[in-house]
Specification:
By secondary structure, this protein is of the alpha/beta class. It is built from 8 helices and 11 strands. Helix 2 runs parallel beside helix 3 and helix 6 crosses helix 8.
């Protein structure tokens, strides 16, 4: 699990964030002030720090500065949405800036995006009953490597990198166009999605991992 350090002085927000991040396979730790945050950075080396600007002890800008000195990605999560705060935070090297109230799924998506950009993304991702190793380019089910074609793997990676998002057929075609010299049209896409579904199977609840949203596209949760 990837450790996320939450720096926030509102314990209700901390509790809600910790609970949600755990459901998304993160390992959250928290600090309510600058001094404690720096101690936890040194003790646990988190993969990312979520920082509120207004703290009871110290301020989020100082925490961000300490995180960047240690090579830790930093994301501001704050109600201070004024332009000056945004600019100051980004000038300090913050990797993203999310205003409260936030949507949990969007927050997690942006955390994962920052982790990937900083080379800290999880190399093994679970989708239903399969494990996708994005570094090795392999997909395993029940410990056995699935024989995916280059285009099937590319299609699967589009879904892995956009979990929770609705992807239209046009978007999918744009992403996998001419992989390995194969011509991909709308009918071909239908065939490859069918093949990919057959190979990766269903999730533990018996539902298709790649869900069809009728008339709109596909989604992997």
């Amino acid at each position: 699990m990837q450790r996320i350090l939450i720096v926030e002085d509102d314990r209700a927000i901390i509790a809600a964030l910790e609970q949600y991040l755990r459901t998304e396979d993160f390992d959250p730790v928290s600090a309510t002030g600058e001094r404690e945050a720096v101690r936890l950075m040194d003790a646990f080396s988190p993969e990312l720090v979520l920082i509120d600007i207004s703290l009871a002890e110290g301020d989020g800008f100082s925490v961000c500065r300490c995180a960047k000195e240690r090579g830790i990605p930093a994301v501001f999560l704050t109600a201070s949405g004024d332009e000056n705060s945004v600019v100051e935070g980004l000038d300090l090297g913050a990797d993203d800036y999310i205003s409260k109230p936030y949507r949990p799924r969007e927050l997690v998506s942006r955390i994962r995006s920052v982790l990937r950009r900083n080379g800290k993304g999880q190399s093994v991702v679970k989708l239903g009953g399969v494990s996708v190793d994005t570094d090795k380019g392999t997909v395993k089910k029940d410990g056995e490597v699935l024989p995916l074609t280059a285009l099937e793997f590319k299609l699967l990676m589009v879904f892995v990198n956009n979990r929770g998002k609705l992807l239209s057929r046009t978007r999918l075609l744009d992403e996998i166009w001419d992989v390995g010299g194969d011509f991909v049209n709308d009918n071909t896409l239908t065939v490859y999605i069918k093949r990919l579904r057959e190979k990766i199977g269903d999730d533990p609840a018996g539902q298709s991992v790649i869900k069809t949203v009728r008339g709109l596209g596909y989604r992997v949760d």
